[in-house]
Amino acid sequence: MPTENTPADVYQVVGEETSALLGDEPILPDKKIDDIPAPPGAWRILGRLILLILRLSLVAAFLYSSIAKLLDPQEFLFAVKAFEILPVQPDFLINFVTYTVPITELICGILLLFGFWSRAAGLMLSILLVVFTAAIFSVLARGLSIDCGCFGKWMPAHVTWLTPLRNLALFIPALLITIFGGGLLALDNRFSSRA
Prior knowledge:
It is a single chain. By secondary structure, this protein is mainly alpha-helical. It has one domain (50-194). It is built from seven helices and no strands. The chain is elongated, with a radius of gyration of 29 Å. The protein starts with 6 loop residues before the first helix and ends with a helix. 22% of the residues are buried.
C-alpha cells in the first residue's frame, strides 16, 4: 500500500534529487556570501587597479601644473620670488628654479602617463612635494600673503593652512607609486616581465 508523503517530504526528496542531478552541494544555512574567498590574484589585480587610478590622478595634476607654468613662465617667476626664500641676486638661481620645476613636473607626468620608470617619477614628485610643502610652511610661519603659483594663473591658489593638505593628497599617491610601482597598464610591467 503506497504511503502518503507530506509536502515537506516531497520537497526534501525533490531537492535531494535535483542536487544529485546537478551536482550541487546543498546550501547550508550558516554559509554566507562573505565567507566565500576571493579568487586567487583578485586582491593583486585590485591593488594594481588602485595604483593605476593614483598614477593617472598624478598625471592629470602635474601635466596641468607644468603646462600652466611653462606657458606663462613670467607668472611663475613672480610666484617664486614672492616666497622670498631664494636670493634675488644673482637672478640665475630664481631663473633656474622657474624653468627646472615645471620641466621636471612635465617629464614625471609623461613618464607616469605611460607607466615607464614609474618608481623614479614617483620618487622625484615625492621629493618636489616635500620641498614645496616646506616652502609653504615657511611662508605661513612668516605670515606672507601670496599666491602659491602651483597651477599658474589658470587656477590661482592663495597659500593657506589647507595648502599643505592638498600637497599631502598628492604626496601619498606619489609615495605609493614609488613603493609599489605604476600598477595596471604600466610599461614597467612589460619590461620587467622580459627580464
